[in-house]
Amino acid sequence: MSTVAPLDLDGHCLTAGFISNNAFFAMADGAVHRLAGGHKTTPVHDGMLCATVDAASSRLLTGGEDGKVCAVAADGEASTLAELGRKWISAVAAGPQKIIGYASGRNAYVLAPGKNPTELTHPRTAEGIAFAPKGLRLAVARYNGTTLHFPGTESKPVELEWAGAHTNATFSPDGAFLVTSMQENALHGWRLSDSKHMRMSGYPAKIKSWSWSHKGKWLATSGAPAAIVWPFLTKDGPMGKAPLELGTRGNSMVTTVACHPTEEVVAIGYDDGMILAARFADQKEILLRREGKGAISSLAWDAKGMRLVFGSAEGDCGLIDITS
Q1: Which homologous superfamily is 15-241 in?
Q2: Are the CB atoms for 72 and 24 separated by under 8 Å?
């Protein structure tokens, strides 16, 4: 059984997540809402474009149309970490030891506390950024591939080439693989030990959400009428292997996925607002929320995997307690 506590907000929810066990909702209008002894709101940007939870530092990182990169603490206090004037911040990422990454136009930046940012320039727009799980390595998704940077070292960037527009990047939890989403309804990947390619295609829509399982053996993705879950069980990753298809609904599209923090289970959000949970082993499904207003745009579990926070493109947000 589960209970749903709704929170009706105005506008598009970019990111929903937990900070110090409280639910946070980052909205496109620039406000951050939180549930902490009631509903509270912090104005952060004049138009927000991106947000991500920095779990290690108990904060929410945000970037906006106002050229600012901000951090929102667990108590809701917002601070400005960087400013780029009239340039829009299109991507933010959390790195080790409170280091952050952000992107604007053709440039990506790496900022360590108390230091000036390192600027990394590319021939084309820096679309998506991600830090490796170990060390200080930043991947920048771009047109025709991805660039791996090693800020603070003499190492030259590593160029991983593949024709097409790459829009986001993610490292596997063990750092062995890098996967990008593409403009053409596909994923592309590289095994980093030898730069061998992995192509994951066949999606009817663009992949806007992905999530690694807690041990990194599976990568769940949106972009189809089911959650497409690719196996990364061996050194070859998904090469030559078929994915799982979980939570298939013929008339609906999966828009968001979030893997459970301790079990091989994935929460699946759909374009009609429904949310299911599905288990990898036997594909068993549990309904967590019926249809709602707007497509599910963000999902996140708490650290214990007992609560699930969700946001939608229409501000139809809330909290699901699966212990009830």
Answers
A1: YVTN repeat-like/Quinoprotein amine dehydrogenase (2.130.10.10)
A2: yes
